[in-house]
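Shift notes (night). Ran Cytochrome P450 while the centrifuge was going.
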Amino acid sequence: MLESVTSELKFDPFDPAFVEDPYPTFQRFREQAPIYAWEQAKGHIVFRYRDVMALIRDPRLVTDPTLGSGFSDELRAAYPDFVAMRENDLFVMRPESHARVRKLVTPLFGPRQLEAHRPRVVEIVREVLEKLPERGVINVFRDFAQNYPVRVIAAMLNIPPGAEAEFIAMADALIATIFPGLSPEVFASYMPAISRGRQIVRAVIADRRENPLADDLLTHLISACDDADRLSDGELESLIAGLIIGGSDTTVHLTTYAIMELLRNPEQMAILREDPSLARSALDETLRYNAFGRGGGLTRFVEEPFSWNGVDFHRGQPVFLNTQSALRDPEFVADPDVYDIRRRTGSSPWFGHGPHFCLGASLARLEAESALQQFLARYPTIELAGPPVYGDHPIFRDIRDLPVRVSVD
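Came back to this:
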């Protein structure tokens, strides 16, 4: 039995009222149970900004749920292509391997380096927008936000046009496999698409080794080296899988939530229309003000037992660093319940910290910034046409339907 600092509060991330607005709940937990024993997940949730920021840096908490044991022999035998795509994933690498790979690839994912890909991002977003009606009601999630991120990644990797459809199918399957609690049958149903997509990825890697391209992310990854140490083909495959998983869902939900909050705060929408350069600031403020997590937060696992503020953390247990609550903590900003796209908050724990800072954070911001700017430019008139409809994803408060009425007039 986990130690619980209170028996009165219950954390239920699937309560419809919580899904619609989790922030009053977060406030109660910050005040009454800042470190909460969550029986359902057999771990603890940390709600206060000061604790989240301290623990996100704590080396006793790691990202690997297996604590180094890797994938089981049964999974390797049943789904070798899936394991090959994920076994060198930055999320599960041991610290020494993680540090080595991050050192090689981090320089390729900074804001300045990714600027070379902006023209293709802009072009893909424009193509998606041109297929939307000039006026009427559209679903921001399904009609717009969901339709560009994987295409951007395919373009950055220069996936051949004839293979793009199967690459996107693989991407969709990889994203689906992170859904916890999948039945064995459903999990297995995604494997054929992953196997076909892996064949494409391997062929593209082999071709790019022989025929490097300019301004091509995969060419840069292949060329990345330090003292003659290069990425293996297996590491390249897993990096591509990680880029797909980490760089797609985040961008889709960030785009959807940003448009929703701007429509809920028309004075902020007016500010952004007056100064489109504030788009990136609007995205960061959306992540601070109303992020799309289900409520657990960044998941870490206890590698070395320790106590924190009187609570014992045991080896193997998960610790959920609730960044959504932390970013609405008055200790972080003085007016946390105000949505202000001109806010400058500096460091934010949303994308992680230090060696586990999200590798695709700059890419997600680049994509969503272009999407937001072009969406507002295409539609001078936008208004909510109904309330958001939330899905049942166990990790995200995913909006499956955000109806808005738009017009090019």
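Residues 1-6 have pLDDT under 50 and may be disordered. The chain has one domain: 16-407.
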